[in-house]
Write a structure and sequence with these properties.
The chain is built from ten helices and two strands; from the N terminus they run βαβααααααααα. It is mostly helical. Helix 5 packs across helix 6.
């Protein structure tokens, strides 16, 4: 976590916070798209705005003006929710929308600057990781992503290896494993249901894959978490 940064985390994402000091100050705001259902005529605009942030998942380093404005709005949201005066939810919605628009502006500005300085190889890595986050449940082979990127699987594999010192397939497997861990801990889905959700050929194949990483079966892992 860096100073003056903000992160919008879409539903279903796995995340953790690291490397922050004891005196760090955080604002955490939880909401979903349903909050804006009463916005007649604006639902598509709001949906498009949220989809933009889902597609640009990276942490945003806020400009000084945006940081100051968003901090004020977060304090206002806190006050409105605490005292629940007349029309408080309407104000909360407006403040959240303003925050989302400010974030979008800063992300777009940062994106233009980064793209100008990135090498082609760095862009491929960034696009690859983004595509994995979007398609990991259905696309499990490096070749699938090479086709989406319009390059050969050999070129993709060599680029990922050179830039990250990790195997390209490993990124796909790591994301699948993290999703399985999440589902085993935070849902009541059976192993068969998880296998179907993640498009494994059989529950046995799903369990075999999980055991490679966890050194135990999904059932054993789930039991270990309940102790």
């Amino acid at each position: 976590i860096l100073q003056h940064t903000i992160q919008l985390i879409p539903p279903g994402a796995i995340y953790s916070f690291e490397n922050f000091g004891e005196k760090s100050e955080f604002y955490i705001l939880l909401f979903n798209e349903a909050l804006f259902e009463s916005y007649d005529g604006c639902s598509q605009e709001i949906h498009t705005l949220l989809e933009f942030h889902k597609a640009h998942f990276e942490t945003t380093l806020l400009s000084e003006p945006s940081f100051a404005d968003i901090k004020i709005m977060l304090n206002k949201i806190d006050t409105e929710l605490k005292y629940e005066k007349k029309s408080y939810l309407e104000l909360v919605r407006l403040y959240i929308l303003e925050i989302l628009y400010l974030m979008q502006r800063d992300k777009e500005n940062a994106s233009h600057n980064v793209i100008a300085s990135e090498t082609k190889a760095e862009q491929i890595v960034k696009q690859y990781l983004h595509l994995i986050e979007k398609h990991f449940m259905t696309k499990k082979h490096v070749n699938d992503y090479a086709k989406l990127l319009g390059i050969s699987s050999k070129h993709l594999g060599e680029t990922i290896k050179a830039q990250t010192h990790k195997n390209a397939l490993g990124f796909i497997h790591e994301r699948l494993y993290k999703e399985m861990v999440y589902l085993l801990i935070y849902t009541q889905l059976s192993i068969k249901q998880i296998s179907l959700l993640l498009n494994f050929e059989t529950p046995t194949a799903c369990s075999r894959f999980f055991k490679i990483y966890a050194q135990m079966t999904p059932k054993e892992f789930r039991l270990s978490q309940s102790v």
